[in-house]
Amino acid sequence: MFRLLVEISVLEKINILLKKEANNIKVRLRALKANPFPDGKDEKEIKGSRRRAYRLRIGNYRFFYIIDIESKTVKVTEFLTAEQAHKIYGRM
User: Fold this and answer.
1) CA dihedral (45, 46, 50, 53) positive or negative
2) Which residues, 6 or more positions from 48, have their beta carbon under 8 angstroms from its beta carbon?
């Protein structure tokens, strides 16, 4: 089991969403504690980043996270809409 850390800026964006949508996102993020490694569908490794980073797709949103295997920690660092993510990182 991994420990989940979420940046405050990510939490603030989640809490602005509709309650039902925010709850769905929180459930999906908590699932990273059991298995944060990509399955190739909704989770993918981001190629070309300095350190191993991953993207989680939840509906029209993209969450970016890193895994620290030594400390068994998953850190969610960024929350973007699909459109924002494609502009910044290109199509994934």
Assistant:
1) negative
2) none
pLDDT tens digit string along 9-67? 999 999 999 999 999 999 999 999 999 988 877 888 887 666 778 999 999 999 999 99
Structure tokens, 25: 């996102």
* Host domain of residue 77: 3-89
Q: How far apart are CA 46 and CA 72, in angstroms?
A: 20
Amino acid code (one letter) for 52:
R
Token pair, residue 33, equals 């504690």
Give the C-alpha distances (Å, rounded to integers) separating 31 from 35, 49, 86, 88.
7, 24, 24, 26
Distance CA 54, CA 67 (A): 8
How many independent structural domains does the chain possess?
A: 1
